[in-house]
């Protein structure tokens, strides 16, 4: 007779001393783990609920401006530095980790219209309503020294937008025309016009660095190549675009914030129709900025909310609002992809988390692992009705909630009417126009 | 196949190339230059030929690809090539890895961790969906491989009992086994002589550490049976029908003469649940925290033990329910009835999910295998039957002269059946026709409770004369998962496990015949969804509003006018459909005509070959 009976030595399964961690032998045999799917579903449901519980995106409010914040600029080299310009011509430099203002300077008379930090991070440019471009040192002047700009260029007309080249000492401004300036010269090296009287913003492509795009007041978006003397092409839309932002990872895509409450993502090679129409705002969209990963962007709107959109989704994944925040004029996504900064009408700059439920600070390895696991579970079960309902739920201010409803009713009515017209007219006389095509008037080359 | 071939070949050439370079251009010195051999020439030629054959197959070969060569021929050649390389290497830089690449994983082990088949790709898939599916499949394959590799590291191996030549294992006595094995294992065979309050029902806790026995005449005791430490012992002064551990060893339920009671491990009565009366049998669903009870009044009731609420009470209308078991894979309750049927129940449905006629007499006992594949039943007709409960088909039928009163299945698929006072253990009842038992043991008195201890080679038998713990080598799962059920857990670990388990308690609504149903795509049709919506809302949101003509003045709202106006919009949708159908008909007709015309045209043209026509 040969016999063997299971006999476990407790020494192999129990820790030796109290100072050890407990032994946890695993066996991944699926038959020992029944109800896999149901248990994972329950975990996902719990994770989704906890996410909503911990969703506290608002971090800090930076106050000190004496008028509405009109523009923001990220420092190109330092994560903790932020520059802001207000409607009374004041520029403030903020230390975000200490959440305090480190420097204030009266840059312009009237609005500070635009601001950009040079790629090296040693100086920054501002433009204002007083028709001047000023270059400032990033360093605070020493004791007893005057706040003096390094250079001042007096332009002929008011400037409305400003952006700097990624690698060279060249920057672009816009106003009545788009000008390309060399930092060493006091007159533009090139000026672009295309039958338009004014532009609202200009932006350099971060990858193909000689390309730039601008939004004009004749409802068009114009693309330029800095090396050529004439603009490349433009697309005319039904309403005016306020700003545009290039996708930093796939730099042939850009997103523009439009007056018709929508954002449009275009492929610069095919301007005939946008790739995605991003809807959800209930008032004009004023500013947009991409996350450095290029997967998401954030938009600021006149309806007093900030929304975060995935780059290829038609609707936002997140909406931020507070009782006190008024029309949001400018928005930036921080370079570490973790924070969002918004400047609004009521003179405050607000610091938000990009992921509302994310835990800040250093995570222990197990904590990090658990977070990753629950994230994966949430993704896996995101389309189950109960989980989706919880994950999607957001509280909105009453006015926005009602306005959304109203807009939906209006849209339905319009669609119904169009359907009726189509029904009662000659077949083919009223063609079906998709939402994407609806907003593009024409493309000019 | 062919592409793998290519990769494989490029792989070998790549492996060979550095050796050759060191052979031809040695950095040490000219005198160390090895004389060229005839086979080097040959190999070079071979490699060149291979390169030509490989073409553009210059993708980076992975070790995975190297390890997956299926046909024996290929394997042989690969081995040969590898040996060649090794020889090459040996003569230049000494020892090399004799087993390059990752270790092979046996196919059966991979199969063990396989969750489901690969999705068949439809021809036109959106590119986003395609990449998503590809990625998830890659991840699951990786997980499968990792788990299969980890299997190698499991510390314990299952027990076994083999007779010498001509020796029958069923004749080996328990004493012999207990003497042959080590002392701790030998101590697992013991007998508790409790002749006063018998017969006994028994239950082991989920970790297998704790034993609960309940005598018919009111004696209840819980024991840490390995250390033989008595946790509590009470007499409830009432007849006891059944006992069951709840989720942990701190609480257990006792079905007494009238009501259901819950006691803690010190024997203190925690609850008397008056909603549950005349309970005969109980089952605890550990992942749902549900206690299912079957009563003599033919009620099947579910108690949620985490919140203490009755989930549902189902009147089965089938008489006294004293045969019950659960399917551990999908938490479905199986009930056996006096008319020979077995019914399957979930808390979500007032009727039985399945009714199957299993025996000609009454059903005496039931057991379901751990994987939920097989069900074993025994009846008054003295038969023991094995069913495949995925297909609800009988597989095997055995005749037991005395009939089995109690059945129990172990984690590794051993079946124990009690016939009178003899406990028999069978092996592989579903795969091969069994003629004689694997083991047998006679106890002192009729068996009333039978239970395999989880994670141990032990079978507990409760009978008229007390309790007997039998050694059954090969019964228990050798390797436990400590996050699920850890026999060696400390109090702190148990507390943590309890919190985790409660957090991921599965809702009773999720119990269904197919436990993976939640992971399937819901292909409800529009009509079904609409029906649900109507049910939820209480009205039909898409229903057409009845057309009421506007009131008009100057006699234009006379009955005749109104009727006329109504007629204008009557059956509008139907008219649309008819119009469309007519249009389609017209088009097909036109096409047909066109085709005919063409045909006649073709026919009218004379061909040069027409002259050969007869």
From TrEMBL, chain A:
GO terms for molecular function: ubiquitin-like ligase-substrate adaptor activity. GO terms for cellular component: Cul4-RING E3 ubiquitin ligase complex; nucleolus; small-subunit processome. Residues 354-440 form the Sof1-like protein domain. Its main location: nucleus. The keyword rRNA processing applies. SUPFAM superfamilies: WD40 repeat-like. Pathway: Protein modification; protein ubiquitination. InterPro entries: Sof1 (IPR007287), WD40/YVTN_repeat-like_dom_sf (IPR015943), WD40_repeat_CS (IPR019775), WD40_repeat_dom_sf (IPR036322), WD40_rpt (IPR001680), WD_repeat_DCAF13/WDSOF1 (IPR051733). CDD domains: WD40 (cd00200). The keyword Hydrolase does not apply. One of its GO terms (biological process) is protein ubiquitination. It is found in: Nucleus, Nucleolus. Keywords: Nucleus, Repeat, Ribonucleoprotein, Ribosome biogenesis, rRNA processing, Ubl conjugation pathway, WD repeat. WD repeats lie at residues 62-104, 278-309, 321-362. Belongs to the WD repeat DCAF13/WDSOF1 family. This is DDB1- and CUL4-associated factor 13. The lineage of its organism: Eukaryota, Metazoa, Chordata, Craniata, Vertebrata. The gene is DCAF13.
TrEMBL record, chain B:
Its main location: nucleus. InterPro entries: BING4_C_dom, WD40/YVTN_repeat-like_dom_sf, WD40_repeat_dom_sf, WD40_rpt, WDR46/Utp7. It is found in: Nucleus, Nucleolus. Residues 10-25 have a biased composition (Polar residues). Pfam families: BING4CT, WD40. Keywords: Nucleus, Phosphoprotein, Repeat, WD repeat. Residues 1-110, 556-614 are annotated as: Disordered. Residues 42-62, 81-91, 569-599 have a biased composition (Basic and acidic residues). Gene3D superfamilies: YVTN repeat-like/Quinoprotein amine dehydrogenase (2.130.10.10). PROSITE patterns: WD_REPEATS_2, WD_REPEATS_REGION. Residues 437-515 form the BING4 C-terminal domain. GO terms for cellular component: nucleolus; small-subunit processome. GO terms for biological process: maturation of SSU-rRNA from tricistronic rRNA transcript (SSU-rRNA, 5.8S rRNA, LSU-rRNA). Scaffold component of the nucleolar structure. Required for localization of DDX21 and NCL to the granular compartment of the nucleolus. Part of the small subunit (SSU) processome, first precursor of the small eukaryotic ribosomal subunit. During the assembly of the SSU processome in the nucleolus, many ribosome biogenesis factors, an RNA chaperone and ribosomal proteins associate with the nascent pre-rRNA and work in concert to generate RNA folding, modifications, rearrangements and cleavage as well as targeted degradation of pre-ribosomal RNA by the RNA exosome. Part of the small subunit (SSU) processome, composed of more than 70 proteins and the RNA chaperone small nucleolar RNA (snoRNA) U3. Interacts with DDX21, NCL, NOP2 and EBNA1BP2. This is WD repeat-containing protein 46. It comes from Oryzias latipes.
């Amino acid at each position: 007779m040969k016999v063997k009976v299971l006999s476990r030595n407790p020494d192999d399964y129990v820790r030796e001393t109290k100072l050890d961690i407990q032994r946890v032998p695993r066996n991944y045999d699926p038959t020992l783990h029944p109800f896999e799917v149901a248990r994972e579903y329950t975990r996902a449901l719990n994770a989704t609920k906890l996410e909503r519980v911990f969703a506290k995106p608002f971090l800090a409010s930076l106050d000190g401006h004496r008028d509405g914040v009109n523009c923001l600029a990220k420092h190109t080299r330092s994560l903790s530095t932020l520059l802001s310009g207000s409607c009374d011509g004041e520029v403030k430099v903020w230390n975000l980790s200490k959440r305090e203002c480190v420097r204030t300077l009266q840059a312009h008379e009237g609005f500070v219209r635009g601001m950009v930090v040079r790629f090296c991070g040693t100086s920054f440019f501002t433009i204002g309503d007083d028709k001047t471009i000023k270059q400032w040192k990033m360093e605070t002047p020493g004791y007893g020294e005057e706040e003096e700009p390094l250079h001042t260029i007096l332009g002929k007309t008011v400037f409305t937008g400003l952006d700097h080249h990624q690698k060279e000492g060249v920057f672009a401004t816009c106003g009545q025309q788009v000008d390309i300036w060399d930092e060493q010269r006091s007159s533009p090296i090139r000026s672009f016009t295309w039958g338009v009287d004014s532009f609202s913003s200009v932006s350099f492509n971060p990858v193909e660095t000689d390309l730039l795009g601008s939004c004009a007041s004749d409802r068009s978006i114009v693309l330029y190549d800095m090396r050529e003397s004439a603009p490349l092409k433009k697309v005319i839309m039904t309403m005016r675009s306020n700003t545009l932002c290039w996708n930093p990872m796939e730099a042939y895509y850009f997103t523009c914030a439009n007056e018709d409450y929508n954002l449009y993502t275009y492929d610069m090679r095919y301007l005939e129709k946008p790739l995605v129409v991003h809807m959800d705002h209930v008032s004009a969209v004023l500013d947009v900025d991409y996350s450095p990963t290029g997967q998401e962007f954030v938009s600021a709107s006149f309806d007093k909310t900030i929304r975060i959109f995935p780059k290829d989704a038609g609707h936002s994944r997140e909406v931020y609002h507070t009782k006190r925040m008024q029309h949001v004029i400018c928005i930036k996504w921080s370079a570490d992809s973790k924070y969002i900064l918004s400047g609004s009408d009521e003179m405050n700059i607000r610091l938000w988390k990009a992921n509302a439920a994310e835990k800040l600070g250093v995570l222990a390895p197990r904590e990090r692992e658990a977070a990753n696991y629950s994230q994966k579970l949430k993704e896996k079960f995101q389309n189950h009705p109960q989980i989706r309902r919880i994950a999607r739920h957001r509280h909105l201010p009453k006015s926005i909630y009602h306005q959304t409803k109203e807009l939906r009713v209006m849209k339905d009515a319009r669609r119904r009417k169009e359907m009726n017209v189509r029904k009662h007219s000659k077949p083919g006389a009223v063609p079906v126009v998709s939402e994407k095509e609806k907003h593009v008037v024409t493309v000019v080359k | 196949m062919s592409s793998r071939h290519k990769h494989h070949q490029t792989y070998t050439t790549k492996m060979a190339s550095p050796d050759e370079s060191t052979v031809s251009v040695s950095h040490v010195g000219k005198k160390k230059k090895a004389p060229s051999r005839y086979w080097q020439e040959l190999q070079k030629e071979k490699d060149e030929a291979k390169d030509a054959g490989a073409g553009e197959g210059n993708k980076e070969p992975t070790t995975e690809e190297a390890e997956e060569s299926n046909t024996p021929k290929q394997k042989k050649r690969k081995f040969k090539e590898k040996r060649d390389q090794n020889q090459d290497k040996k003569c230049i830089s000494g020892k090399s890895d004799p087993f390059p690449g990752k270790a092979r994983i046996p196919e059966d082990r991979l199969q063990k961790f396989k969750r489901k088949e690969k999705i068949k790709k439809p021809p036109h898939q959106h590119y986003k969906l395609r990449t998503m599916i590809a990625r998830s499949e890659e991840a699951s394959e990786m997980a499968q491989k990792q788990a299969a590799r980890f299997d190698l590291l499991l510390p314990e191996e299952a027990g076994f009992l083999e007779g010498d030549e001509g020796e029958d294992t069923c004749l080996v006595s328990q004493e012999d086994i207990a003497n042959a094995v080590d002392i701790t294992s030998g101590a697992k065979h013991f007998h508790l002589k409790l002749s006063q309050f018998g017969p006994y029902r028994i239950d082991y806790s989920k970790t297998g550490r704790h034993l609960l026995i309940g005598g018919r005449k009111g004696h209840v005791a819980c024991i840490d049976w390995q250390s033989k430490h008595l946790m509590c012992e009470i007499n409830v002064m009432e007849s006891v029908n059944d006992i069951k551990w709840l989720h942990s060893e701190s609480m257990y339920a006792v079905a007494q003469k009238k009501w259901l009671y819950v006691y803690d491990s010190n024997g203190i009565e925690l609850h008397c649940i008056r909603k549950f009366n005349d309970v005969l049998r109980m089952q605890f669903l550990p992942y749902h925290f549900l206690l299912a009870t079957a009563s003599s009044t033919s009620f099947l009731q579910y108690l949620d033990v985490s919140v203490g609420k009755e989930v549902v009470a189902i009147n089965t209308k089938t008489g006294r329910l004293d045969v019950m078991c659960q399917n551990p894979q999908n938490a479905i309750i199986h009930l056996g009835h006096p008319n020979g049927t077995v019914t399957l129940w979930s808390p979500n449905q007032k009727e039985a999910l399945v009714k199957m006629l299993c025996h000609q007499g009454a059903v005496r006992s039931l057991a379901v295998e751990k994987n939920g594949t097989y069900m074993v039943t025994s009846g008054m007709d003295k038969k023991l039957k094995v069913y495949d409960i995925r297909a609800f088909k009988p597989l095997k039928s055995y005749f037991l002269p005395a009939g089995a009163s109690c059945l129990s299945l172990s984690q590794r698929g051993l079946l124990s059946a009690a016939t009178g006072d003899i406990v028999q253990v069978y092996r592989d009842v579903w795969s091969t026709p069994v003629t004689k038992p694997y083991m047998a043991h006679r106890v002192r008195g009729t068996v009333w409770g039978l239970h395999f201890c989880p994670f141990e080679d032990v079978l507990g038998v409760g009978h008229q004369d007390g309790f007997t713990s039998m050694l059954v080598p090969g019964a228990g799962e050798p390797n436990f998962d400590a996050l699920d059920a850890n026999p060696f857990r400390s109090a702190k670990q148990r507390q943590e496990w309890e919190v985790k388990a409660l957090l991921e308690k599965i809702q009773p609504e999720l119990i269904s015949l197919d436990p993976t149903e939640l992971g399937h795509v819901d292909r409800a049709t529009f009509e079904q969804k609409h029906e649900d919506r109507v049910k939820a809302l209480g009205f039909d949101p898409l229903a057409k509003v009845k057309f009421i003509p506007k009131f008009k003045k100057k006699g234009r709202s006379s009955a005749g006018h109104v009727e006329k106006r109504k007629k204008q919009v009557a059956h509008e949708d139907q008219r649309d459909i008819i119009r469309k159908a007519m249009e389609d008909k017209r088009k097909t007709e036109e096409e047909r005509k066109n085709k005919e015309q063409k045909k006649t045209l073709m026919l009218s043209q004379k061909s040069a070959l027409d002259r050969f026509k007869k």
